[in-house]
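Input/output pair, single chain:
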Amino acid sequence: MLTPPIGLLPIFQWLISLERSPPATRTLLTIERLQGWSMLGYYPLEHLYYLVSHGIIPSTIRSPLSLFSSKPKLIKLDAGKLSLWSTRFWAAYVLLHFAHLWEDRKLLIAKGRALKRASKGGLSREEKLEMRNRWDAFWSEVVINLGYLPLTIHWCVMGGFIGGAYSD
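Output:
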C-alpha cells in the first residue's frame, strides 16, 4: 500500500524510485506520479502558509526576478490563499489515493484468483494468511482515506464546505 513520504527530498526520491522500479501496472504508475506531483505542490505551499501566518517571514517579499531589473517587484503572500491551495493539493492526493485503492483492489482479486487456480482451489495456510493481511491493509487504507476525505473537501473550499464552527 502507498504511504506518502514526508518532506520535499523524500518526495523527489520517491518520484525517482517510481521511474527506476515502477509499480505493477501503468495505471498505478500514472496515479503515483500524480500523487507525487500533488505532494510537491502541497508541502511548499503549506510551509509558506505556516511561515507567513506566524510572522516568521513577511507577507510581502521581493520577487527573485527583480534581481534582473532596476524596478523591484513585490510578491504578496496571502496566508489564506496559500492554505487553500495547499489543501487543494492534499485533496488531489486523497482523491488519487482512492483511484490507487481501486487498482489495488483489482490486483488483490486477480492475485487471489491466480492462487486458487494454481493450488486447484485450496490455498495453503501461508497463502490464506498473506491474502488476509493484504486485504486488512487494503481496508485500513480505505478507512484512513474515508477519514481524510471530508477534511480535504471542507478545507479546499473557500470558507469551508461545512459552515459554522468548522470554517475559518
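The first strand starts at residue 60 and ends at 62. The longest helix spans residues 79-118.
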